[in-house]
Amino acid sequence: MLQVLAFATPNSLKVPIALEEMGLEYELRAINVRQGEQKSPEFIAINPNARVPVLIDPEGANGQPLVLTESAAILVYLAEKHGRLLPADAETRARIFEQLFFHASTLGPAFGHAGFFLKHAPEPLPVAIARFHGEARRALSVLNGVLARSEFVAGHEFSIADIAHFGWMWRREFADVDFSASPHVQRWHETVSARPAVIRAIERVNALVPQA
């Protein structure tokens, strides 16, 4: 069975959403990043970059298990292997990869850095807050423009590109952004949030957090 090492984080959520959408069975194992478990020697032996999520596929090439890191790479791997959420035609694939790269290079880092400097920096750094909070809002505006032209982020069908963006929209309050100036993102977010697979994935990921 597929194993996913994860926690209730924006990037972790992407993998269970994809697996639920594809109807695949998987085991979800908690790596409590709030307690630093991602920095343990045991976990670093699996992912030297000390990040979640990690996918372990026991049925990798040549009968060997595959250990895969980086959420975007995991999404592409699952889509390619199971023939779901990544169409075959070149133009649609290019649009999906365009959004995956935009998320990995711009939107995701901006939201993450904004949240860190707003909430976790040892001392306030106004220049960093202004830089990354502004970049998070700018990236959201770009995404809003994309969604003004199509139902989903890479066209008129739900794809792994939507899954990639959804994680940070789910945790947008961490970066102190909202949808007040992004009505098309809000419409899309409501649509994606209502998908049964997304609801199931969120429930499973939230269950990884220990109860106080």
UniProtKB/TrEMBL annotation:
Stored InterPro entries: Glutathione-S-Trfase_C-like, Glutathione-S-Trfase_C_sf, Glutathione_S-Trfase, Glutathione_S-Trfase_N, GST_C, Thioredoxin-like_sf
Cross-referenced Gene3D superfamilies: 1.20.1050.10, Glutaredoxin
Gene Ontology MF, one: transferase activity
Keywords: Transferase
Ranges where the GST C-terminal domain occurs: 89-212
One matching Pfam family: GST_C
Key word Transferase present: yes
Residue ranges of domain GST N-terminal in the record: 1-86
Name this protein carries in UniProt: Glutathione S-transferase N-terminal domain-containing protein
Species: Pseudomonas gingeri
Organism phylogeny: Bacteria, Pseudomonadati, Pseudomonadota, Gammaproteobacteria, Pseudomonadales
